[in-house]
Amino acid sequence: MPEPTCNVNDIALVFEGGGYRTSYTAGMANLLLENGVHFPLVCGISAGASHTVDFISRDR
Q1: Phi, psi dihedrals of residue 38, rounded to the nearest 5°
Q2: CB 3.0-4.6 Å disulfide test: which of 5, 31, 47, 51 passes with 15?
Q3: What is the pLDDT of residues 7-34, one digit of tens each?
């Protein structure tokens, strides 16, 4: 699969930590993936690191 091109410039996506918060974040991450939104930098803190891995690998 080819690397997706970045269509959002000059903005980083940061997934926050916290078990309960990340359950809500999962829906938002899925929505971004479904709509083909790609950021130049994606990172996550604590529990958000799991979303970071899924988002970068495009795993819903």
Answers
A1: -130, 135
A2: 51
A3: 888 899 999 988 888 888 999 999 999 9
Residues whose CB falls within 8 Å of the CB of residue 6, separated by 6 or more in sequence, listed in order? 38, 39, 40
Looking at 1-60, list the stretches that DSSP marks H as alpha helix, in order from N- to C-terminal side: 19-34, 48-56
**Whole-model pTM?**
0.80
Q: Which residues partner with 41 through β-bridges?
A: 12
Among candidate residues 44, 55, 45, the one with its CA nearest the CA of residue 4? 55
Q: How many CB atoms lie within 10 A of CB 22?
A: 19
Q: Which two tokens stand for residue 25?
A: 């974040």
